[in-house]
Design brief:
The chain has 339 residues and is α+β, with helices and mostly antiparallel strands. 49% of the residues lie in helices and 23% in strands. The protein has three domains: 51 residues; 61 residues, 2-Layer Sandwich (Beta-Lactamase); 146 residues, Heat Shock Protein 90, CATH 3.30.565.10. The protein has eight helices and twelve strands. It is elongated.
Length: 339
């Protein structure tokens, strides 16, 4: 507040100077206020820009304050927020809920920046590369003795008594199963490369029926192939392997259910753009649908967990897809006529 006595003691010229100084001070206050508003707007814009930079990062990103509270995070970080409490040190790999993350930590003043990059696919590729080398070596080492055992089993089958022939047949089925596992593992690790051609649908049915004869099961199962006389386009050998995988899964589901017998329906359908085969059964329900196509994971009492994953690779290589169906329980396999 201005002192009234001081103001009265001033002459006219001094009062004008005082008035002008006061006006300049007020104007300067407005200028400072305007500069402050601009600075605040720039700060908010910078803050928003930083938030956008963090948001577009493909990896999860957190900024933690000195009290350990989250100062800033992107949407990827929010998806796996519970991972944060498992992060202990910088530059480490963490396995969490079936996925692998590469974690890096940096500090800036009183803030800590944490990033977690999903490296699950890279880890799987490394694993598959190692598996491919092992599988190639094992297949070479196993196929020679298996070939000898197969030859001896065929010779033995011709010479044994009739009552012993079923035992030899079981040996031959087991050999076929081992050879099939080797082939599937090699295919899975090396990658699927279809050889496309036209073939009769009846050939695919024949392949499937021959495979069923080699598969061991104890219950009475009815197989209904609802195929027509179409000629279709694809890789007969690979599609035959897909058919086997799903039919064998259906057999195993029937084997594990309470019923004494079962029915498996294999239906073919064709439209203008694609082919589809539906394989359904009345066996045990699928326990965990989330791991159906994950390699080396299975809820069955037998199997190596490769069948459905390899089948998905094959069908995707045919520009197709595999769908789980609820009623009746089964799968629908579709692929394009011209991939």
């Amino acid at each position: 507040m201005i002192d009234e006595k001081l103001l009265n003691s001033l002459n006219s010229e001094e009062k004008e100077l005082f008035k002008k100084g006061l006006e300049d001070l007020i104007n300067q206050t407005y200028v400072i206020e305007d500069e402050y508003k601009k600075l605040n707007e720039s700060y908010l814009a910078l803050q928003e820009f930083i938030a956008q930079i963090i948001e577009v990062q493909p990896n999860a990103l957190w900024v933690i304050d000195k009290d350990g509270e989250i100062f800033l995070q992107n949407s990827e970080a929010k998806k796996i927020g519970s991972l944060l409490e498992h992060i202990e040190k910088s530059g480490s790999e963490i396995e969490y809920e079936g996925s692998y993350y590469l974690v890096k930590i940096a500090k800036h003043q009183d803030k800590k920046i944490i990033s977690a990059t999903d490296i699950t696919q890279e880890k799987q590729k490394e694993r598959l590369a190692s598996m491919g080398q092992v599988a190639a070596h094992l297949s070479h080492e196993i196929r020679n003795p298996i070939g000898s055992v197969s030859l001896l089993a065929s010779t033995l089958f011709k010479r044994v008594k009739v009552e012993n022939k079923p035992l030899v047949l079981e040996i031959k089925k087991s050999i076929w199963r081992v050879e099939r596992i080797i082939k599937a593992t090699l295919l899975f690790t090396k990658g699927v490369k279809p050889n496309f051609s036209y073939f009769d649908l009846a050939d695919l049915e024949k392949e499937a029926r021959l495979a069923i004869e080699q598969y061991t099961y104890s219950k009475e199962i009815e197989f209904n192939f609802n195929f027509n006389k179409s000629r279709i386009y694809g890789d007969l050998e690979l599609l035959g392997l897909v058919m086997q995988n799903f039919i064998f899964n259906a057999i195993d589901a029937i084997e594990e259910c309470d019923s004494e017998d079962g029915v498996i329906d294999i239906d073919f359908c064709e439209n203008q753009n694609c082919y589809s085969i539906t394989i359904s059964d009345n066996g045990k329900e699928i326990e965990n649908k989330n791991i159906l196509f994950e390699p080396f994971k299975t809820t069955k009492t037998k199997g190596n967990g490769l069948g459905l994953s390899l089948s998905l690779q094959i069908i995707q290589a045919h520009c197709g897809k595999i769908e789980l169906i609820e009623k009746p329980k089964g799968f629908k396999i579709s692929w394009e006529k011209r991939c």
